[in-house]
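pinging the channel bc i need a second pair of eyes. not urgent but kinda urgent?? the chain im working w is below, pasted from the shared doc
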Amino acid sequence: MAKSKPLHWQEPTTENCPQCNGSGEFRGMFSSGPCAVCDGTGLVGENGEPLPVEDLLPMLRRQRDRIAGQIEAARQHYRQLLHTPGVREALAAEHERQQERQREKDMAFRKKLRGV
């Protein structure tokens, strides 16, 4: 008889990897790469072992979907701001100020190169 999967998947309890402190990256003196303890995820189970793929994939998918939702919400907020009176003009003015500052920096750099 085949094992049946639970109807509702429950995310396992995790901790930050003690080796990489949750970054998922090993940094040595001469090289760097994915952490060997947590398989590059930054997370380990309660027992300190890497998470099994069966648990890891749904967790990463949920995280990806959560981040995608946050990005979409930020884009929608930005679109709404653009319809607020005066915002487009303020953005254009700020863009012009940034261009002017860049031109001034370029001119100062050219003068420095010429020795003036």
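so The helical segments are 53-82, 87-114. and The radius of gyration is 25 Å. — does that match what u expected or am i reading it wrong
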